[in-house]
Amino acid sequence: MTLFDLVPPRLMSPIFAAAVLAALLVGPSCSAEETESNAPPATPVSEDATGTVTEADPPPAASEVETPAIAEGEPPTVEVMKELPESRDQIQLSYAPLVKEAAPAVVNVYAKRVVQARSPIMEDPFFRRFFGDGVFGMPEDRVQSSLGSGVIVRSDGIIVTNNHVIEGGEQFTIVLSDRREFEAELIVADERTDLAVLRIDPGNEELPALRFRDSDDLEVGDIVLAIGNPFGVGQTVTSGIVSALARTQVGVTDFQSFIQTDAAINPGNSGGALVTMDGGLVGINTAIFTRGGGSIGIGFAIPSKLVERVVNAAVTGGVVVRPWLGADTQRVTSEIADTIGLDRPVGVLVTRIHPKSPAANADIKLGDVITAIGGYEVFDTEGLGYRIATQEVDASIDLNVRRRGVLNTINVKLAPPPEDPPRNIQKIEGQNPVSGATVANLSPAFNEEIDVSPWQQGVIITKVERRSIASQLRLRARDIILEVDGAKIASVKDLKSALAGNGRSWDFVIRRGNRKISVTFRI
């Protein structure tokens, strides 16, 4: 029998039923003070067989009520009182105050470049047969524009965006949230991090700027906002959470440790801000995983720790110089972990050490396993490279290194990669296969600039003139000359000596991408 069974039908009005239901829901959770202040004590009633309501015995005094005993070791039961919100402030939850603070620092970035384009009519073989490539087929100059987002990070006009937003651009325009436009100067375009830094001149005005928030303080589940200009529709704010950290297999940049978020990021959001709930800039939105071109809840942002490093380098010197460890590594797999006695696959295995590197100076050995750097665990080569890239070029940093089953802490003094030998850029002339090509010596420093493996040695072709001998023999920029007539080529001087013979035939060994090509040139 329930409480509703005890109440006669004539008393079951909607209001009374609601009161009974409220008594059931609130019941014991109401405090004694609330009972005394709101209503007099209720008198229990019962119904006899004839339907007559009679007064029941009064309830026992509080001292007479038996309190159920709590078994030893059992936690006491805690009843939580739920209250209805009493004001609009208690009901309304909004990101509006945060957006008002952060949104003015997010801008639109327009990059323009002039390209030559032919009329599509002249691509038709029928028209080309009659008109040829004369006046009607002459290419026309056209202006192409690309649109992305950017973030003001300093009130004097320093703006950071993605490199792919401004890549190839010749003129840059910044449009603020209040629709004012400024011409921008490109300070640094860093392809390896996919970041670019621009500067505008606001005069004596201080622009709204976002402060950097340490991305290492983020945790999975933190709420974040993404602010940008998706699809060119205008500034848009989306919300989500941090879905994952240290994503290293995205394949967008060389230094990968992306923040993954489910806040909607779409084309045009690139270069926009990923903002925490305290208004800090924690990342630059860069890429999405998509099947149809739009957001499916998997977006990636470059962590602020790396962004701040690039911005500081751009402002202080205009060139991004990264520290160098000088050790080649590979990820520790489950099989490697079993072989070297690790309880789980963590860290990277050192497979090669440059003799003039900080790693060699710190006495790191082949076969060492680097498990952490600066207190942060590493799980792959990309994660190690990211942690090094966020340091200053002359920083000292502790590495946790496992060697023969013993865990050691090794302090490494980082340094910029050396330019040894000097690049010695020269244009080759004369009657030889490389005539008309510009070449340079490879070194760890120069390799870093042109995104070549720091271990690669030889002479690289940086430019090939049109209609030159090198062009006719199909030599290309970024070809690396390793040997000529069996002689190893370690410098431009070696190359010029090998080409100085009076012969008309040369045997070359060239590295092109991941291939090594042997070819004989005759002129």
Account of the 3D structure:
- This protein is α+β, with helices and mostly antiparallel strands and 523 residues long.
- The longest helix has 14 residues.
- The protein is 19% helix and 32% strand.
- Strand 7 and strand 8 form a beta hairpin.
- The chain starts with a helix and ends with a strand.
- It has 14 helices and 27 strands.
- The strands form five sheets. Strands 21, 22, 23, 24, 25, 26 and 27 form a seven-stranded antiparallel β-sheet that branches. A six-stranded antiparallel β-barrel has the order 3-4-5-8-7-6. A six-stranded antiparallel β-barrel has the order 9-10-11-14-13-12.
- Would you count the extended β strands for me? 27
Calculate the terminal CA-CA distance, rounded to whole Å. 108 Å
Mean pLDDT value: 80
Number of helices: 14
Global Rg:
35 Å
Give a topology summary.
Elements: H1 3-6, H2 14-26, H3 32-38, E1 45-47, E2 53-55, H4 88-91, H5 96-102, E3 106-117, H6 125-131, E4 140-154, E5 158-162, H7 163-166, E6 171-175, E7 181-190, E8 195-199, E9 223-228, E10 236-247, E11 258-261, E12 273-276, E13 281-288, E14 299-303, H8 304-317, E15 327-331, H9 334-340, E16 348-353, H10 358-361, E17 369-373, E18 376-377, H11 381-389, E19 396-403, E20 406-413, E21 426-427, E22 437-441, H12 444-450, E23 459-464, H13 469-472, E24 480-484, E25 487-488, H14 492-499, E26 505-512, E27 515-522
Antiparallel strand pairs: 1-2, 3-4, 3-6, 4-5, 5-8, 6-7, 7-8, 9-10, 9-12, 10-11, 11-14, 12-13, 13-14, 15-16, 16-17, 17-18, 17-19, 19-20, 21-22, 22-23, 23-24, 24-25, 24-26, 26-27
